[in-house]
Amino acid sequence: MTNNQALNEWVASVAELTRPDDVRWVSGDDDEHRELVQVLMDSGDFIELNQETHPGCYLHRSDPGDVARVEHLTFVCTSEAEDAGPNNNWMEPGQAREKMHGLFEGCMQGRTMYVIPYCMGPIDSPLSRCGVEITDSPYVVVNMRLMTRMGQPALARIEREGGFVRGLHSTGDLDPDRRYIMHFPEDLEIQSFGSGYGGNALLGKKCHALRIASYQARDEGWLAEHMLILGVENPQGETHYIAAAFPSACGKTNLAMLIPPESYPGWKVWTVGDDICWMRPGDDGRLWAINPEAGFFGVAPGTGPKTNPNALAMLDHDAIFTNVGVTADNQPWWEGIGSGQPVTDWQGRSYDPEVSKAAHPNSRFTVSAKQCPTYSPQAEAPRGVPISAIIFGGRRQHLVPLVQQSDSWAHGVLLGASMASETTAAATGEVGVVRRDPMAMKPFCGYNYADYFSHWLELGEQIANPPPIFHVNWFRKDAAGNFMWPGFCENMRVLEWVIQRSQGAAGAKDTPIGKLPSEHALNTDGLEIDPQTLSALLAVDEQAWLAELDQIREYLEGYGDRAPQALFTELERVRANLVN
Ligand code: GTP
Ligand code: SPV
Ligand code: MN
């Protein structure tokens, strides 16, 4: 119970509709957590992992049909279809509510209903926003405890402020034909039914912190983005912060936790966030950013001692593993972990590489950010961190260079708006298909992309010192299908160039598509890469770019008259550069 009458009334009305056996207000304290873990173990939703090697760690196996976000079942329900835009599935709000009412009716009979007050962002930050998730899933409660600041302190803030985002969730019967993730941005409301998985069920994350928040941010003059935030500290002890948007499973967590290679003595990367960034213009004309999350829900496969040692180091206690394999002595295991042998796969079957990978490609870990060895002390700063550079990036086998800098803010917005990337296992559907994914927000922008591009353009005009915008691509492949760039810790070299450019230093050459590192400007000390590969990574194939521009134009024209003219002006400027 609370002294916030609107919250009490909403909880009562949800209980009346869903008819749970019991209603629990989640406090977030340790006793409650122990009790919930026991509930999860008793139901079989949690399997205890080896408590000697992994104290406080548990394995959850999802229903095999419920292992990723479901974009085709995710809707933005604005009054006008045009406001959701061609980038979203849309349903008329009245019709959507009726559909959801039917699904939620009586769905919590025999279950406990949990009321989770949460705060996205540091509890005392003016940039933070609160919500309340009502769920019948104790798995959601224990994940929300790691991913958000939840329970008593969040409720106290809600009582102080009054407003909150309403999120109603039930796992239902996990029937994919009775699964919907509905957003009502005009009412700051989310209704999610039929999935227990990550972004479908942990409503603070993609539903609130991106879809609803992006809608609010447009009205209020800020940005809610699918971006990591990191700080690069140089040997002089100065730290510069970068925000970077890559689509799902395209390298945010890895970059955010990078450990510089040996040839970078005295350099350090600090992790502020790995998935979501809320940015606002400050009085000083810069953009200031917070990570609204308190934990990481990261991709397990590929996380190993060479790729992301920081992540491995934080996963040996108090973590939840979803859909990974298990070793003979009950330790979590996934492809790329670097040691051990699986005996059981993610579905609990005896491991047979002929039948299945040990870990599902979208298997995940959930862990408190406080366990990350490079977690930035500034991550808890109420005012956030000042952003020196913005990076966009996608998974592109061909064409797109390792790094480029935009010629202006408007050109940078075009780079973001033209992003494309191969699809990954983070969402259901085919993997490896190149699709347009502007600013890595295709599945997450809570309103019409045309208006979103305009908002980006306007924001850049309003701020005195907008950060320079870059585009990167770690994923170029050669004719044999091998990655051309070593990636991971070696991405430090690109970060260094980006930071130096943002300070007006480092060599760059003008090309038709933007500024690329001039010869020797990219630090390759201690890097084993043959010069031809490097020059291929930094080459501009003008004919292929002209063809790409045609596709980008066609894509942007799909947004009709609402698409901002400035993007087409930029596009034609680049085309003219290529032709001349
Ligand atoms: P979400 O949590 O889904 O938003 O994903 P993310 O962007 O945080 O992706 P993550 O860092 O977890 O990386 C996903 C996959 O990309 C993993 O399999 C990584 O091994 C791979 N990856 C990350 N960085 C690099 C890189 O620099 N080069 C290559 N080749 N692969 C990378
Ligand atoms: C993503 O898919 O971009 C994720 C995981 O970060 S989820 O929480 O499922 O959205
Ligand atoms: Mn993500």
Number of domains: 3
How many runs of DSSP E, i.e. beta strands?
A: 29
Portion of residues within helices: 25-40%
* Strand proportion: 15-25%
Question: How many whole angstroms does the radius of gyration measure?
Answer: 23 Å
Structural class: alpha+beta
Assembly form of the protein: single chain
Task: Give the number of helices.
Answer: 16
N-end to C-end Cα span: 68 Å
Annotated CATH topology of the largest domain: Phosphoenolpyruvate Carboxykinase, domain 3
Kindly report the average pLDDT value.
97
CATH class of the largest domain: Alpha Beta
Major pleated sheet: 9 strands, mixed
Which of globular, elongated, flat, extended, rod-shaped describes the shape? Answer: globular
Named CATH architecture of the largest domain: Alpha-Beta Complex
Which cofactors or ions or other ligands sit in this model?
Answer: guanosine-5'-triphosphate, sulfopyruvate, manganese (II) ion
Which regions contain 5 or more consecutive residues with pLDDT less than 50? none
